[in-house]
């Protein structure tokens, strides 16, 4: 009986299996041949350059060709043009090439980024969907229209100086008179930037932007503030609270003395001391106060026992940062002022071993057709050629390591030639639009240079190079003002930086970038600041000790 049941079950399973295999529901579906309707070709103004186009005119002709003819009714909603904010931009469209090519003609704004997207919902005449979407980026060019009336070159230089001067005069901190770090810094003032600001005030008097009496009063206000502000063996912190004079930490362990910032401050103060040479009690007191502040900086203490100056000292972290001040960079002025000190001077050995590194700061290689005496490859950011030379005249200046006129002109020309060559193919770089240095960038800050090129141009780079590249700097100035003025010319002069790749224009102004513009334009025009600082007896003595030779000493 059991065996019978077993066989019955086997037969039942077999029958059931045969019926299941014959079930139409399990028959494989028919094979569907995919559409071959796809993107074929793209041209913007009759040129194919991938899917990103820079320097596009405001009325481009965009042609997108497909493998089969388009259903005209599906264009609307499936071909979309938007600007950088996502706002839809209208355009005219038509078909050509047997309806295989869509011709798109928009009216665009200058210096704007656009995205054109063709979705898979674009149908062909058979009703088939596009295999994959198409997207391209368009960045429009600078408008050639002048944004302001043309004036003479001399009038333009004066205008730029006067507008930039407002950063230090109108926007100076109300309590301390010091320069704020940037236009959003509130009570945070900057030591080095205030040194630049003092030089700017001397320039402002010279150019009749303010009276001598008003300038004297502002500089004395700054000096009175500095007499009570925090000092660390005579050196000031990078940032200071403009109300209280208390040090503000620049970074985690940088909450004490900053010798480089102090040297930039002292260079400005000594320049003002030489300018205010009158016999009045007010000018005499200012000169005496400035001399006292300078003489109280313990330059040699910042050696930290070595034959090199050290950048920082913290009352909390002592020498933990241990950043040696070594050339070539912006800190030549630090060694000059340290050697020139009547009270805490360093020796020439510290200059030779610490700064010059016994000659290893030399370069001698050629970049973009120009030989560079000192420093890093391709020169580095241009502020290296500016900060120390706001008051030190490089013309005819030599020592054992370089001719500094040659050095700074070479550095500026390498920067210029790099931007003209534009190996990174950044939008907008040209003989009229150049200059890489430390500045704000989108969502950050960096020291731009030919070896660190983020596509960001900083006006201070070219404009503070006027003494080195007058023709190239004037071309840049005219471009910045006349062609980009609607974007970058603001209340305190030119904004800090801009990028024409994905058009971005900073809203910021920084003291350390605005200052060199007004100062170096003045040195280009009259040598005012150079003549003043180089006339200081301490500077003459100190540079002589270091072996400098110059017709201006």
Automatic annotation (TrEMBL):
<feature type="domain" description="Glycoamylase-like">
    <location>
        <begin position="323"/>
        <end position="536"/>
    </location>
</feature>
<keyword id="KW-0732">Signal</keyword>
<dbReference type="InterPro" id="IPR014755">
    <property type="entry name" value="Cu-Rt/internalin_Ig-like"/>
</dbReference>
<protein>
    <recommendedName>
        <fullName>Glycoamylase-like domain-containing protein</fullName>
    </recommendedName>
</protein>
<dbReference type="Pfam" id="PF10091">
    <property type="entry name" value="Glycoamylase"/>
</dbReference>
<dbReference type="Pfam" id="PF13205">
    <property type="entry name" value="Big_5"/>
</dbReference>
<dbReference type="InterPro" id="IPR019282">
    <property type="entry name" value="Glycoamylase-like_cons_dom"/>
</dbReference>
<feature type="domain" description="SbsA Ig-like">
    <location>
        <begin position="56"/>
        <end position="134"/>
    </location>
</feature>
<dbReference type="InterPro" id="IPR032812">
    <property type="entry name" value="SbsA_Ig"/>
</dbReference>
